User: What shape does this take?
Amino acid sequence: MSAAVRRVVVTGLGVVSPIGVGLAPFAESLFAGRCGIGPLGLVARDGLGIRIAGEVRDYDPAAHFDARRLGLLDRVSQFALVAARQAVEASGLRFEGELGPRTATILGTGVGGIGTLDEGFHRLYAEGAQRLHPFTIPRLMVSAPTAQVSMEFGLTGPSFTAASACASAAHAIGLAFQMVRGGLVDAAVTGGAEASLSFGALKGWEAMRIVSPDGCRPFCETRNGMVLGEGAAVLVLETLEAAKARGAEVLGEVAGFGMSADAKDITAPDADGAARAMRAALADAGLNGDEVDYVNAHGTGTAANDATEARAIHAVFGDLARRLMVSSTKSMVGHSLGAAGALEAAATLLALRDQVVPPTVGVERPDPACALDVVPRVARDARVGAALSNSFAFGGLNAALAFRRV
Assistant: This one.
């Protein structure tokens, strides 16, 4: 088969999220419009202005790892491994023999093991400790989740981490897609993980004054900020030809990938940059605007991001923008930063699989200035043949993934 025409599909998907651990619980909550945002419980709230978050609640590390293994794993690597185990099992792939060296491991994360870093700094500076845990560095390094996943499954092909803030996971998936499509590898385990709800990180976000005190309401007139979250999603990619040959279930096709840089401001989004990424993804997929039915928006719930993204969508789709279904699943799970693009890719694939568009929950009054159908509050049965998933990061680092139903 020519590398130029290799079609890439998703045959495995695993999720760790504030609305469910495992694909089935995640899908059920996603389409029921359940919100996983609630009172902050992972860290003591004394001294914190941030009171709510999208936490993975009722998560027991001991249910997934023995005590010896846990000593090596920050929470972010735990999430990556749990999601990867689900995805690999669902795919039915085994990596013995030639497939191991022909499989890439590419994950995205924004900050890596910041919980370990925060804990170490507290021991040093608050408690006066003279030494730290011997595995502090292997736990906190940004490449740790990728390394742990590659070791778990014996994946000896290309392996690296994409770290581009809130676009990290989308960049990881896009690069893995390109490697499979181009014939450099035959399969990829890809996605993203983040577990950054530590005291120090939360104080940093608090200082930016863009975190909502009462909920995430993307594209709503009353939106007042983002809500931080955590979690992981991992996809198994392979060629359509290989999936068909072994009778694997196909969740959807990764059809195209687009990237761009605003090159303007470290925090302020730019509609032109976002539009360039979306246009690049559509062109890469060979899709016209009228073939796209759904956009899973970056949709953080901040005044600047949502208005800017709406302008970008209108710029790309023109008059078609008003009939597009556009929703933000951050309204349910919060903003998981480097993992956001992976969780949103999972939601987009489920929309293609089940022909249901997830809602933007919490919307009180859709903002007429955005002029989009944001699927408010309730999921919608709809034909979804192709969809985009947007990820736009601080620093103007933009990524868009195009998916298609197979």
About this structure: DSSP finds 13 helices and 15 strands in the chain. Residues 243 and 379 are 30 Å apart (CA to CA). The chain has a mean pLDDT of 97.
